[in-house]
Write a structure and sequence with these properties.
The chain has 282 residues and is an all-beta fold. The chain is built from one helix and 13 strands. The protein is globular and about 65 Å long.
């Protein structure tokens, strides 16, 4: 099973900027490596608050457009091994599942880059100096950002919501339980839901309604589609008359081959931008 973490997020009625998507091949760089032992006792803490095993972080960068996310079901890791031939997709102790993993995609403040973490339950053997990752990632790319206001006549379950190339559907709207002080609007993605960059819900006067936003990752794990959750506070349910959506008008899949090696040999850390004078901000 594969996992991806993306670093990954007005009205201009007729403005559409058209440029070629991914005019240059994406670049892939190793930006992190974590090796955490399996605890002898399952009740013990795992180092670095991490999953036991080997994790490698890859930064994928494109030159044009926006990375919307990673299609985890269409991506694949064919090899995860150290340079002594140790298969790191196999655990040295019993685990629920032996396989390389990619964490679910998450919104990124850098739209032209995404961070992918590859995890295997195995550990490099003594004397190994590198870990190689081979496979391919299917990137979801977008281009041509637009903004549109859409009237909403109803928010009953199964009400469709079409935004640019995306189709979504209302899953539910109401309180999660009788004691809940918030009203939750759940919207399920159906097709191309990653094309939607943001949604602001509007009242009858066209003013934005304050809401907290979450993603239900358990639904994404089960269905491969994102469930968007918007939480509104108030004694009564808000009257939602419309939505202001920012989206990309063009969506494309791009398969990117992966063949990189992360070094296990300690190396000098690169310089970082200081937050203050020495001895401060610690």
């Amino acid at each position: 099973m594969l996992y991806g973490c993306a670093f990954h997020r007005l009205l201009l009625p007729s403005l559409l900027v058209c440029v070629l998507i991914a005019a240059e091949p994406p670049t892939i760089a190793v930006v992190g490596l974590c090796v955490a032992q399996h605890p002898a006792n399952p009740a013990e803490l795992v180092p670095f608050a991490s999953m036991p095993g080997t994790r490698i972080a890859l930064r994928v960068t494109i030159s044009e457009g926006v990375i919307l996310g990673i299609d985890r079901r269409a991506s694949r890791i064919d090899r995860l091994a150290d340079d002594r031939g140790t298969d790191l997709t196999r655990s040295p102790v019993p685990v629920d599942q032996d396989s390389p993993r990619l964490p679910p995609a998450q919104p990124s403040p850098t739209p032209t880059a995404t961070l992918v973490e590859v995890h295997g339950p195995g550990l490099p053997v003594a004397g190994a100096t590198g870990v190689r990752v081979v496979g391919h990632l299917r990137l979801r790319l977008g281009n041509g950002e637009r903004q549109e206001r859409i009237a909403l006549a109803a928010l009953a379950p199964r009400t469709p919501l079409r935004i640019g190339p995306a189709t979504l559907v209302v899953a539910s709207f109401g309180k999660q339980d009788a004691e809940d002080s918030a009203w939750t609007l759940a919207i399920d993605g159906v097709t191309n839901e990653d094309a939607v960059r943001s949604m602001k819900f509007l009242d009858a006067a066209g003013k934005p309604i304050a809401a907290d936003y979450f993603q239900n990752l358990s639904v994404q794990e089960a269905t491969g589609h994102v469930q968007h959750l918007y939480s509104f506070t108030g004694a009564t349910a808000p009257t939602i008359a419309g939505v202001e959506a920012t989206y990309v008008s063009e969506v494309k899949d791009l398969d990117v081959p992966v063949d990189v090696t992360a070094t296990l040999t300690p190396a000098p850390m690169p310089a970082v931008v200081p937050m203050g004078k020495a001895g401060k901000d610690l």
